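Sorry, explain these tokens?

***
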Amino acid sequence: MSDDGGTPLPLAGVRILDMTNVLAGPFASYQLGLLGAEIIKIEAPGTGDLARQLGADADRNARQMGASFVAQNAGKRSITLNLKSDAGRDVFTKLVRGADALIENFRPSVLARLGFSESVLHSIHPALIYCAVSGFGATGPLKDRPAYDQIIQGLSGMMYATGTAESGPLRAGYPIADTLGGMAAGLAVSAALFERQRSGRGATIDVSMLETAMTSMGWVVSNYLVANQDPIPMGNENFTASPSGTFHTGDGLLNISANRQIQFETLCRVIGADSLIADVRFSDRESRLLHREELHGLIEAALSTQSSAEWEETLSRVGVPAGRVLTVPDALAHEQVTSRNLVHDVPDCSSDDEHDATVSVLGNGIQMNGRTSIPSSGPPTLGQHTDEILSEIGFDSAQIQQLRAEGAI
């Protein structure tokens, strides 16, 4: 794959077998694909990735091309393979021999029970990068438990640190633990590929979603480890500074982060509340933290004279970080987002009108050498590339027909 300027991307020429399902694993391989890797998605015949049936559009779910699947699978090729059959395992062995990396997010030991433990995989291909993503990792007392995003959010402390005293613990509004686990897996695979260039050795990567989620909470966790302060939910307030949070304006919500003294003083002057600067309750960082509720109310009263859009522009212009609270449609339509080509229209292979139909997907928010990487193709239908991939690894049409008759693909 290349970027939109024709320059090869950093992972061009890398082949990754994607045996993942739903979100954490597919997100990892999607990010690697956007960086140039070739992704071969291995799915169970008939059912495939569960995400094919998930999303807000019931018709797409029925066609096994749900919005949740579309989100993380553009640019991949799909092959169906039955690893419970001898012939299917033989095909898989050939695929492993020709791959650079394999990512899976079964529960620990599932792939081993199918005959492909980490040691077996490395006996087939010693230089293989093998990455397993699971809720709790391959060791420890919870290693065999099933885990979904909300379970991890709760066990990690994320939910306890989110919300307010009135609401109680709240989950994030999207599957952040899954996404963080996938991001960590993508980073680890990239690092292992780099190390292999030097050593020639393969690697085994064990990604724990629970640990990844906790690692992402660095400041919150550090307050407990270093300062013995148990985090409390503070809603939209910033526990490190005040005024820093979400404020009502004349027509909507505005986030303001006046974390430095000069930003606080500038904010007060711009909104016409100069008297707050000399007020002993707000004279320094620690005082403002102690009196954050009083300060919040006084600032909101001053902000009520203009709209959130007007205040965003005014405050940003004088160096006070500020931004409206946008809906998802508004965020996607924002000129900053559109100017950097984050959203891509790719072919929708599931449509009856294959030539003209497209579906929109997100990129990765990264520009390489000033250019945006884009998916090389649309999300694949289940098994769309089975024959093509089998032909590439040496099967002729008669052999492919026989594999299909045996239920191996």
Remarks:
- The mean pLDDT is 94.
- The two ends are 27 Å apart (CA to CA).
- The longest strand covers residues 38-43.
